[in-house]
C-alpha cells in the first residue's frame, strides 16, 4: 500500500508564497508521475502541475510562471512552490501519484487559503 502525506498548506495574503510537500511511502514499485491537483468549493478537481518521471513538468495555464513543481526522486517526494498567490488559488490541494497499471494514489489534501 502507498501512503501520501502532504504538508505546507495554510493562510497567506495575496502576493504571498507557500511551499507544499508530499512524501510517498510504503510499497512503491512504479512511479510514472507525481503531481498536484486542487479543488475549490463547488468546483471540480483540477490539475495544477505534474512531473513525469524523467520528463518535463506540466502546468495549468492559470499557474504558469507562478508555481514550480519539483521532485526528489531519492525521497519519493514532490514539492510545489507557489508564488504570487491569488485569492482564486484558494482550494484544497491534493498530491497525486501515478503508478501506472498499479493504480492512482491520493493524499488527504491540504488547505491553501489566500486572503485578499
How many helical stretches? 0
**Unreliable stretches, pLDDT < 50, 5 or more residues?**
none
- Encode the helix/strand succession as letters: EEEEEEEEEEE
Overall SS class: mainly beta
Sheet bearing the most strands, described?
Answer: 7 strands, mixed
Q: Please tell me how large the radius of gyration is.
A: 14 Å
In total, how many beta strands? 11
What is the molecular shape?
A: globular
What proportion of the residues form beta strands (DSSP E)? over 45%
**Mean pLDDT across all amino acids:** 96
Topology summary:
Elements: E1 2-7, E2 10-13, E3 18-26, E4 33-39, E5 46-52, E6 57-59, E7 67-72, E8 77-82, E9 91-98, E10 104-106, E11 110-115
Parallel strand pairs: 2-11
Antiparallel strand pairs: 1-3, 3-8, 4-5, 4-9, 5-6, 7-8, 9-10, 9-11
Describe, in short, the structure shown:
The chain is mainly beta and 116 residues long. It is built from no helices and 11 strands. A hairpin with a 6-residue loop joins strand 4 and strand 5 (46-52).
Write structural notes for this entry.
It is a single chain. Strand 4 (33-39) and strand 5 (46-52) form a beta hairpin. The protein contains no helices and eleven strands. Helix content is 0%, strand content 56%. The protein is mostly beta strands and 116 residues long. The relative contact order is 0.33. The strands form two sheets. Strands 2, 4, 5, 6, 9, 10 and 11 form a seven-stranded mixed beta sheet that branches. Strands 1-3-8-7 form a four-stranded antiparallel beta sheet, with no helix packed on it.
